[in-house]
Amino acid sequence: GENVEQHPSTLSVQEGDSAVIKCTYSDSASNYFPWYKQELGKRPQLIIDIRSNVGEKKDQRIAVTLNKTAKHFSLHITETQPEDSAVYFCAASAGLDKVIFGPGTSLSVIP
Amino acid sequence: GAVVSQHPSWVICKSGTSVKIECRSLDFQATTMFWYRQFPKQSLMLMATSNEGSKATYEQGVEKDKFLINHASLTLSTLTVTSAHPEDSSFYICSASGRAYNEQFFGPGTRLTVL
Lengths: 111, 115
Description:
The complex is a heterodimer of chains A (about 110) and B (about 120).
Chain A: E1 4-7, E2 10-14, E3 19-25, E4 32-38, E5 45-51, E6 56-59, E7 62-67, E8 72-77, E9 86-93, E10 99-101, E11 105-110
Parallel strand pairs in A: 2-11
Antiparallel strand pairs in A: 1-3, 3-8, 4-5, 4-9, 6-7, 7-8, 9-10, 9-11
Chain B: E1 4-7, E2 10-13, E3 19-25, E4 32-38, E5 45-51, E6 57-58, E7 67-73, E8 76-81, E9 90-97, E10 105-106, E11 110-114
């Protein structure tokens, strides 16, 4: 089955700096890669996603890149703000099939 | 976007009792629903996938007789934790997807505490 790894497990950045989270997946059949932000005690919130026919996608301060050959994908957050502090999960899925989550990255943005 | 609700939001029960958690898609038909469990400071672990009208598919290591899943309609799936024990205490989250959407929508989660 699919296995998703994620690094780093914790990340601290100064407000205004960029944050990068990297993930790898194992199943070449996966073609949908969502990223979720989860605040304590709340549901995961989809912040951006990318499909396998695209190499990069950007939405304001958030961007995601995908290297299907290497089975790598990354989340980039620029101009970080304190409200970006949360746990971020990458995930992989084969379309509408089950979504397998990475272990998560706890991001702290220091004012 | 689509809305998924869960009930109850939290529940405390005694060891040995059973607890039912409901997951509803409020404004779309969910052909598939997923149940996850999340322990503190850990990731979401998929427990099972349920398709309306058919038996759920459980992930390896998840006891199907302990975690009963019923997906009786296109808007409702239930998870029953039978004979709950303290180690079953966790945050249970459902998600739903349907023909109209290419993503899953998560419910708000249910915090289960077994005493």
